[in-house]
Design goal:
The structure is a single chain. The chain is mainly α. The protein folds into 2 domains: 78 residues, no CATH class; 36 residues. The protein contains 4 helices and 2 strands, in the order αααββα. A two-stranded antiparallel ribbon has the order 1-2. A hairpin with a 2-residue loop joins strand 1 and strand 2. The two termini are 46 Å apart.
Amino acid sequence: MSQQAFDRFLRGEDRLARLLCALPAHTPSAEFEAAFARAARAAQAQRDAIRTETAPGQAAASGPATLDGTRLDAIPSAFEPPASLETSFLKMAASIESAQAPRRDAILNGIAHGDS
């Protein structure tokens, strides 16, 4: 895409931009909004508790946020990833891992030999 075409898109002057602007706004389900509000309140309560319990200069304890004894990561997600996403993610992770392996091995060998 050329810079000129991109600028037209940003100004809403091309067909795709007009179609996107014409789409109705997404409204989350009431269940999702309630789960989000509970998660936000629990995260705020945890942050407030850490602030009051942690003395200056003392490290704060970390742990999963909870709401009424329920871990927030246990709240069901409205997003269900496609099965193909896992395969492509693992392939990308393996590619990154193999690209970083020589550098990581060199650093670990240097540390093992006393280099800093």
